[in-house]
Amino acid sequence: MIKWYKIQRRGIRMYLFEHEQKRKKLIHNSYLSIFILSLLLSLCFFLTDYGLGTQFIARGTISVLFYVVVFYFAINEKKWALFLVKVNVLMLIFMLVVVIISLIFGR
Question: Where residue 8 falls among pLDDT bands split at 50, 70, 90?
């Protein structure tokens, strides 16, 4: 039996199959997981750059607060938060590719 899921956005009702809904939820959860990974990675970069000084505490606190607020609104599926999550994930992927290339071709 086919299950339908009702989604309402902007006053328009959309119906999705069960496998489409699972796929959308999987993509959403993977973006959020990589977003959390990017927070941890940025904290590691701050720690290696500043040590345990006051600059690390200030920048780390501001960064964590930003990530927590965006993560909260992304769970509630606000469009601006989802956009920031996707941009952050794409920037993380780009940064990792650049780092790998520089490690391969660097001296």
Answer: low
DSSP 3-state assignment of 65?
helix
Tell me how crowded residue 84 is: count the other CB atoms within 10 A of its CB: 19
Using the predicted structure, report yes or no on whether residue 94 has a pLDDT greater than 90: yes
Give dist(CA 5, CA 18) in Å, integer: 7
Q: Work out the angle between the directed axes of helices 79-105 and 18-50 (0-180°, nearest 10).
A: 60
Q: Which tops the pLDDT comparison, 8 or 40?
A: 40
The span from the CA of 79 to the CA of 58, in Å, is: 28
Q: What is the pTM of this model?
A: 0.73
